[in-house]
Amino acid sequence: VTSALAFDVLPLKLHPFSQSTPTGLDCVGWKQRIAFPVIADGALDKSALTDDVGSEEDLYEDFRSSNHRYGHAGGGGEQLAINELISDGSVVYAEALWDHVTMDDQELGFKAGDVIEVMDATNKEWWWGRILDSEGWFPASFVRLRVNQDEPMEDYPLKVEGGKDDDSSSGTRRFGMGQTSKDQMRTNVINEIISTERDYIKHLKDICEGYIKQCRKRADMFTEEQLKTIFGNIEDIYRCQKKFVKALEKKFNKDHPHLSEVGSCFLEYQTEFQIYSEYCNNHPNACMELSRLTKVNKYVYFFEACRLLQKMIDISLDGFLLTPVQKICKYPLQLAELLKYTNPQHRDFKDVEAALNAMKNVARLINERKRRLENIDKIAQWQSSIEDWEGEDVLVRSSELIYSGELTKISHPQAKSQQRMFFLFDHQLVCCKKDLLRRDILYYKSRINMDDMEILDVEDGKDKDFNTSVKNAFKLHCQDTEEVHLFCAKKPEQKQRWLKAFESERRQVQLDQETGFSITEVQKKQAMLNASKQQHTGKPKAVTRPYYDFLMRQKHPTLPTTLPQQQVFMLAEPKRKPSNFWQNISRLTPFRK
Questions:
Q1: Per residue in 564-575, is it b (16+ CB within 10 Å) or e — as a string?
Q2: Which end of the chain is more exposed for a tag (fewer CB within 10 A), N or C?
Q3: How far is CA 438 from the centre of its chain?
Q4: Domain boundaries 182-374, CATH class
Q5: Architecture label for domain 76-145
Q6: Could you tell me the CA-to-CA distances from 53 to 32, 47, 49, 316, 348 in Å, in that order?
């Protein structure tokens, strides 16, 4: 599905946000064969379907057996369509994103910015291409299909004497009989941004009207809760994107696209784009629910009928629902390219530069929220392993483990010292005691509300409040109640790590307040329910080895042992022979270290 959404060829409408059968590639003929009648209440008129083409099941089977040459089992046909175009004599160009240096005479070497004629795209990892008189294999992940496929062959960059390219630093490159400056390249990028936004709007409309609207009319098949799980907040995204594309079009200079000033639009909507966080977090749940439903034939037939009624390309519903994840991740890529071809003297330069940073921050925020949401399961599992737990669950107030480690706690009266394990979450510090025999078993002892505390660094020597000598110590002091807690670390560096951890905890709380991050009650209850189901029956509770390692890390303790199935994207230059670049775009970033 991912590869089916990967290509970005504007004139052919084969980009990630295609909304209908590609122009010139409609070989199925559904327009002539089928007219899907919709009765007043919006349900499909099954009697009319039966009269024309038989039942929904017959329609589905007829479509699957019709030898539609752009469909395939993976749910998308763009790659096959590209090869069809090549076999029909059409020329398909790709532009190099990175240098490809090779010593293999079977591989095609090129530099970033070179234009390559794609001659064979059968293999999704390696394509066969040509530059001037050289042919060879090259990694598909190092290129992207050209923004403007209609540019003639003479636009290939010519080699100057000595076999070297024109100086790209001048901002101008020779093409055929004339020259194309940065302005022409900026025009191409601007046109790509505007065109993909328009198509994306149509794509969202197709999902909302082609699927959601029809699903709501079938209360016998879908509950509102199921629809919320499958489609998330995509209707909110649709409304946001409609306003965004209108703002873009106002800034679009039709006569001179390179003069368009679109950077301010991204800056204006950077906060609104945070709604993608909810969608990305929900997307794995949507995939699981769809997987469950599509095991039943009637849902498969229904979804296919919805797609055909809306005249959408041959991609399964889970593929369509992936595109918002891809879209929010593609903005930094587009803006980086736009900045590349924007002169510093251009009126849009500063806004584009700021917009690039803003959209990268949006992607980071989505990554962070995704990581936080997935970590609540680990926190719930940790709590379920603690013996003698008292009071409210950790997740009632916290969603992030900031730091953990052993400290000596000194208490009144008589300055009694105790070795304890401490776990610093946002808003609270949890104190546990290790079992004397089994050190991986922890017993709950107490907790401290960090919202009421200030951190005091204590010098080595005799402390007046506790009348005892201390080393590597610090205090937690509550100004309202004058409550004081004294702690000692074994080493100075451990003390410093704790002091920095307390600062990080306050920053995290402040950031959550500023961004409005929170875990819903449903998510908290589900995490605790999942943790209770995973407890081992008939055995004493203990912190299992993976979670013990997870919690005992001295650095950031939120690095998982396995990556989640769906991940939010962060751009990175690929290594030699990487996995498909566009597949990487649709994945979510791993947890930060």
A1: bebbbbbeeeee
A2: C
A3: 41
A4: mainly alpha
A5: Roll (2.30)
A6: 12, 10, 6, 22, 55
